[in-house]
Amino acid sequence: MTVPTPLAHSYFQGILVSHKLAAALLAALFLTIPPASGARAEPSPPPANSAAALSPDEAKRALETLQDDKKRAQMIDTLRAIANASGPQQPAPEPKSPIPLSADGLGAQLLLTVSEEIGEISGEIASMARTLTHFPAFYYWIMRTANDPAAYNLLIEIAWKLALVFGAAFCAEWVIFRLIRRPAAFLEARVPQTARLPMQALPIADPPSSVADVTPQPELHKRRHSLARIWQLLLRLPFVLGRIVLELLPVIVFVGVATALLGTEIGEPTTVRLVILAVVNAYAFSRGLICMVRALVGPFGLFPVRAETAAYIEIWARRIVGVGVSGIAFANVALLLGLHRAGYAALLRMVMLVVHLFIVVIILQCRRQVAEAIRAPAERQGIAARLRNRIAGGWHYPAIALDLALWAVWALNIRNGYSLLLQYFVGTAVVALVTRVAIMVTLSLIDRGFRIKPEILQRFPGLEIRANRYLPLLRRIVSGVIAFIGFVAVLEVWGVDAIVWFYGGQIGSRLISAVVTIGLAVFIAAAIWEASNALLDRQINALSRDGHYARAARLRTFQPMLRTALLCLIATVVGLTALSEIGVNVAPLLAGAGIVGIAIGFGSQKLVQDLITGLFLLLENTVQVGDNVSVSGLSGVVENVSIRTIRLRAGDGAVHIVPFSAVTTITNASRGAGNASVSVNVAYKEDTDRAGQILKDIVDEMRREPEFRALIRGDLELWGIDKVDGAMVSIVGQIRCTEAGRWPVQREFNRRMKLRFQQNGIEVASATQTILMHIAPPADSAASLTPRRAAG
Q1: I need a surface site. Which of 143, 324, 388, 528 has the fewest CB within 10 A?
Q2: Phi and psi at residue 780, in whole multiples of 5°?
Q3: Digit-coded pLDDT (tens) for 65-112
Q4: What is the value of pTM for the model shown?
Q5: Which of 562, 570, 560 has its CA nearest to residue 527?
C-alpha cells in the first residue's frame, strides 16, 4: 500500500474543500430562492436532512461569499460558465460515404461485421501479446542486480565457485573418458552391420511349364527381408545398450563429483548451491540427451543410417538441446537471483519459441525428402495416388502449424489445450481430406460431362472450343464453393458456430443470396454472349457456303462492332445488378453516368462524328473487310472496320488507321468489276489495223488459258485511234475483268504485247518530238539558204 506524500495529500484535501464549498454555495442559493407559488403560499419547510448536508461552518463561509460583492460576482461568472457548458450541443454531421450504401444493405452490414470481427481479433491478439511478453520485468531485474552491491558480490561468489566445481568435475570426466575408450571401440567393432537385400534364387523348372515358374514372389521376399532386419536389430540391441552405458558413465561421474563438492562449504549459502546445481543438471541433461540420440541413430546406433543423415540429426539435436536446456537453466538461475515470476515465464516462453522455430527450419529443410517418401509411385493411378501426391506437395504446412500450435497451447496455458489441439488437428485433417476427395470427384464428373459426342461436334464445329473456354473457370468456381463449405466445417470443428451466420436474416444468408443472384446474372450474360456469337458465326458460314460472299463479308464487317456493343450492354447490366445486390443505390450512379455522357458528347464532338459517320458507312455497305480502297489519299486492303476507325494494310506492309471523321471520299476498287486499260503508242508509219488485230489476238489467247479464263469477262474493247501526230499514233481500249483480275491481266497483257510487237516488227513510238527550225547561214552563203530538220 502506497502512502501519499504531503504535497499530494494537501492537493487532494484542497480539492475536497473546494467541492464542499461549491456544494454549500449551491445549497444556500437554493434556500434563498423564494417560492414561485404566490404571496399567499406559505414557505415550505426545509428538508429534514438540510442541516446534516450543510454544516454551520460551511453556511458561514457561504454567507460571507454572498455578502462580498467581488466573491459573489466571481461565483456568478462560474455558474454562468457551467450553465453554458452544460447546454445542449449540436451533434456533429455524420460523414457521408462516397459510395451510396444503404444502412440495411448487404455491403454496409458486411463492412460492419468485418470491422467488428477484426476489432475482436486484434483485441485478443493484443491481450495474448501482453500475456506472452513481460520483458520489462526482466529488464528491471538486470538493472537492479547491476546496481545492487550485495547482488554483485553474490554473482562474484557464484562465478568462482562454479568454475571450481566445473573444473574438478571436468577433470574426473576426462579421466573416465580415457578409461572407457578401449571398451567403447571394442563394442563398436562387434556391432552387427545392416542387413542387405540378398539376391533371390529363382526356382526354374526343366523345362519351365509356365511363366509362373520363373516369376519372383515380391511379397514373400519383402517379408523375409523385414524379418531379417528385425533379427539384426535385436542382435544390435545389447551392443548399443553397452555403448550407451559407457558413454553415460563420464556424465554420472561428473554429476557425482559436482554434488560431492557442493556438499562441502563450497555449497554455502543455499542460493549459491542451487544456482550451481541448476547449471550442473543442465550440462548433465544435455550430455545425456545427446548420448541417447547417438544411441538411436548413427553408424553404431540401434537404427543405422547414413553418415550424412546421422551427422545432420546430431547437429540439430545439439542445437535444440543446447538452446532449450541452457535457456531453461538460465531462467531458473535468474529466478533464484530475484527475477520476477512474470519475467521468468516470459523468458521460458521465448526459449521454447526458439526451439520450436528450430523445428520449423528442420521441417522446411526436409520437406522434399519427406514428400518423396509420401508421393505415390509413378505407375499408380486413381484417387488414392492423387491424394498422396497432393499431401506430398503440402505436408509441411500443417506440420509447421501443428508445431507452432503446440508452443501456443503451452505458452498460453490453455486448459485442456492439448486435447483440444488434437481434436482440432484431427478434425481439420478429416475435413480437408473429405473436401479434397469431393473436389477431385466433382471435377472428374465435370470433365466427363464436358466431353462432346462426335455427332454433336459435326453439327456444331465450334462448340468444343467454346465449352473448353469456360471449363477452367467452372472448375475454379466449383472448387471454390466446395472449399468454402470445407472452411465452414473447419470453423465448426474449431468451435466457431459458423452455421448461425447462414440462418435466415443473417449476414451469411444475404451474402449467399447476393452471390447466387450475381452468379445467375453472369451465367445468363455468358449464355447470351455465346449464343449471339454462335449465331453470327453460323450465319456467316451459311452465307459463305451458299455463295453470298458479299453479304457474308458485310456481316463479318459488322461483327466486331456488334460484339463490342453487346459486350458493353452485358457488362453494364451485370455490373448494375452486382452493385444493387451488395446494397449500392444505383440511381445516383445512373444519373451521374447520364450527366457524364452528355458532357462527353459536347466535349468530344469529333468522337461523335466518327461514330455517326462510321455507322452510316457500314449501313450503306460502303466498305467491307478485304476491299481494296483509297481513303484520304491512303490506299490498301481493309483489315478491320470498327465503329470509329478503318484500318488499311498498304502494299508495303504498313498499317494505316483512318478515323471516319477524316473520310470525305472513298474509292473502292472491289465492287465486282475491274477493267484493265489498254494504251499503246506505235510509230506513225505502222499499220494501225494490223496492230489492233494483234492486240485482239493476245486477249483471245489469254481467255483460252485456265489461268486467266476466270479473270477476264469479255473480249478486248478496242476504242480506236485516240491521238495522231507526226511521230506516233495512240491506240486505246480496255479489257473487262473481275475485281481480282484487273492488275494481273493488265500486267500479263503488257508483257505479251511487247513480245508480239517485237516478233511482228511493229515499232513502239518513243516520246520524242520533231522540230523544224531555220539556222542563220553565213554571209557568203545567204543565197543558198535551205531549211534543215533537227530531231529532238
Answers
A1: 143
A2: -75, -15
A3: 777 767 777 777 777 766 665 444 454 444 444 444 444 554 555 556
A4: 0.49
A5: 570
